Amino acid sequence: MRNFEFYSPTLYSFGDGQEKNVGALIRRFGGTKVLLVHYGGDFVKWTTAYDDVVSALNEAGIPYAELTGVQPNPRSDKVYEGIEIGRKENCDFVLALGGGSSIDCAKAVALGIPYDGDFWDFFSEKAKIETTLPVGVVLTIAASGSEGSGHCVITHENGNLKWGIPPTDVVRPKFAILNPRYTSTLPKYQIACGAFDMFSHVCERYFTRTPDVRLTDRISEALMRTAVEAGNEAVKDPSNYAAQADLMWIGNLAQNDSSGLGRIPEWSSHLIEHELSALFECAHGAGLAVVMPAWMQFAMPTGVMRFAQFAVEVWGCEMNWEHPEVTAQQGIDRTRAWAKGMGLPTTLGEVGATEADIPAIVAHRKEKGFPIGFYIPIKEEEMTEVLKLAL
In Å, how far are 202, 260, 328 from 218, measured between CA atoms? Predict the structure, then answer.
């Protein structure tokens, strides 16, 4: 296990009805006027969260302005709009209502309001992140774990670049309210995307070459097994509170780095997927269901025992000691079958890409640079091979 520092300052208020505390929590962390960032549209129809939060803000006497219309794979135009509204309205706190897209948009807006330059400077690494407005979250979609992470990903219209900031505790939300009831009205496809997204977040940490990581291996395996079980249950019956509660908490634990401490993570599957969702507008979890098993297939020959352990401990496969590659392959096959069973795509064609698109997808990644990943450093040739395995 490697040396590490772990700082996770987010306060979590978990359970049915906890959204009523939003006003008190905003005041606790210094907020006096809020910029409320959310999807609008169908989101308001799917859940009572918007009405509940607005009612709680009014009851607490906290004024607010709104940034609405955030879309999946949040884009820079909405961030610029939010920065303008926040400055004009003198907001000193940003509240995200929704899932990862609303949260990441809120984080970027909170970075941009006090900054004199272009917020994109933080994503292109022209400027160092030093300050931000405080951010709070009322979570309605269990998936990204952005409610407790130091990550933020935005797509810029100029070049259609889907990039993230260097991870930093500065952008971690001050609080996150997690009411599993809000996820019970989501479309089943969105629940499935979220389950595979959080599963993938753990995979990115699990597939490591760092030795002596037994404890975080066990934590990761428990998270992945439970994501599979709860994902299946929630897709079958979205009103299953216990399954939705498991997914909501797994989503956070998968991304707050508690399962990745003391080890070098992977991350190439996520970075490859960013190109798919930027270019083909697929949901992030759906793109990961295409890329992650393909990356596993590519990487498995260089670390058969790690993949065999994954198959045994996560999927319950029987270990074939004479031919561990057989066991390893079973784990990959079951990962793909699980995604497919939840109704997710597992091939490039299912998200609108063809073999002829692969060179353009790889070239688009060059804007941010190679290599990516740590388990196997991925350059242009390796990324091409991974994508071909996803055909």
Answer: 11, 11, 18
* pLDDT for the residue numbered 43: 67
The pLDDT of residue 44 is 64
Q: What is the pLDDT of residue 283?
A: 92
CB 65 within 8 A of CB 31: no
pLDDT at 46: 72
User: What's the pLDDT at 122?
Assistant: 96
The token pair that represents 391 in the structure block: 């055909």
- Longest alpha-carbon distance in the chain: 68
Residues 6+ apart with CB under 8 A from 222: none
- Rounded distance between C-alpha atoms, residue 34 and residue 57, angstroms: 9
DSSP of 153-199, one letter per residue? EEEETTTTEEEEPPP-GGGS-SEEEE-GGGGGGS-HHHHHHHHHHHH
Query: Which of 304, 307, 290, 278 has its CA nearest to residue 388?
Result: 290
Q: Which pLDDT score, from 0 to 100, does residue 62 have? A: 97
Q: What is the rounded CA–CA span in Å between residue 209 and residue 303? A: 9
Q: Are the beta carbons of 327 and 312 closer than 8 angstroms?
A: yes
Going from the C-alpha of 387 to that of each of 269, 272, 293, the distances in angstroms are 10, 9, 10
pLDDT < 70: residue spans in the chain: 42-45
221: its two tokens: 């395996």
One-letter identity of residue 93: F
Residue 35: strand pairing partners: 65, 94
Residue 105, CB-side half-sphere exposure with 13 Å CA sphere: 31
Residue identified by tokens 């299912």 is 350
| pLDDT at residue 41, rounded to an integer | 73
